[in-house]
Every structure is written in structure tokens, then in C-alpha cells.
Amino acid sequence: MPGSAWLNNNANPFVPRPTSMIVIKSADGSEVNLENLKKAKEEAERIAKQEAERKAKEEEEERQTLKAEEEEKARIAEEERLQHEILKAEKQRQKEEEQARLLKEEEDAAAKAEAEEEEEGEVIRINTARPSEPLPKRRPGPLDLSTVAVKTNLPPPIPSALATARIIEDLGRISYPEGVQSPKVKLNVNAKDGNFR
């Protein structure tokens, strides 16, 4: 067989040697423990999962809060609408009651007027038809003032307060009616020529 010269027929069969542990070293030359790396990875995954769960919980709480706010706004709007409708219905009822009261008063007044007319025996009618021709405007004649001169026994008018007013020289000589107070003396200490306050 070609190339058999290179093989040793007396050699033991090939059995791989047991290998020693493979050691991974960091850049500073210290041995890297793979278990620590696995634990760190698991811890990072656990933290990421907790963070995702926390975010999901916060988002759900925010959705619930927004939903509750929207429901509250809708409830308040509905209450306002119902109050508006109640007020509108109350105003309408009051208006109808007022109209019914006025109608009853008119009917009572008409019945009373009819009863009075029947008692009097006469029926008064008012012609509300417009005249076919407009009436000419009447202009008043000149005033007759001759009768005014005859009535001279009228008393003269009472003079106004300004016509009978006098200058006050001394405030101390003025007497006031009961219940009326005089001005404060301190205000008019240095007043000159009747310029009192």
C-alpha cells in the first residue's frame, strides 16, 4: 500500500489523551470563572425582566388612570347635561304655569266683565276698525290769557333758600335744631370772612 511506509505497524492504537481544563484568562492574566459569567448573565436577564415587568405595570397603571379620568370627565359631562335638561324642563314648566295662570286670570276677568255687563244691561262695544278716510289734524287756536290776569288773589311763591341766605359771621351764634350737630370747631379755627367748613 502506498504511504504505508510512514505508518508503524507495531504502534498502539490511537487513543486521545485526556485533556486538561481549558482556562480562559482576562487581559490582566487572571483566570476568568465562567460560572460567574453565567450568574452575571442570569442576573442581568432577571433585572431586565423585572424592569420590563415594572414598565409594563407602570404603563398599565397609566392606562387605568387615563381611563378613570376619561370616565370621570364623561360622568361630569353627563351630570351637567342632565342638570341642564332638568333646569330647562323646570323653566318650561314654570313658563307653562305662568301662561296657564295668565289665561285663567284673563278668563276670570272676561267672565267678570260679562257678568257686570249683564247686570248693567248694556253691552259696550269698541269699534276698532280704521276709518276709511284719515281725519284732518286739528290745530289749537290762540291762547286766551285774559282770564289769567283776573286771578290775582294767588299767594306769592315761597322764596328759594338761596334768595334768603345770609352770610354767617360767627358760628357760635347759630342755633341748631335738636338732633343736628354743629360743625367741629377745630375745622374753623383760622377761618376768615365767613369761609367756614
From TrEMBL:
Keywords: Initiation factor, Protein biosynthesis. Pfam families: eIF_4G1. The keyword Protein biosynthesis applies. Residues 47-75, 87-144 are annotated as: Disordered. Residues 87-114 have a biased composition (Basic and acidic residues). GO terms for molecular function: translation initiation factor activity. The keyword Chloroplast does not apply. InterPro entries: eIF4G1_eIF4E-bd, eIF4G_eIF4E-bd_sf. Residues 153-193 form the Eukaryotic translation initiation factor 4G1 eIF4E-binding domain. It comes from the Eukaryota. This is Eukaryotic initiation factor 4f subunit p130. It comes from Lentinula edodes.
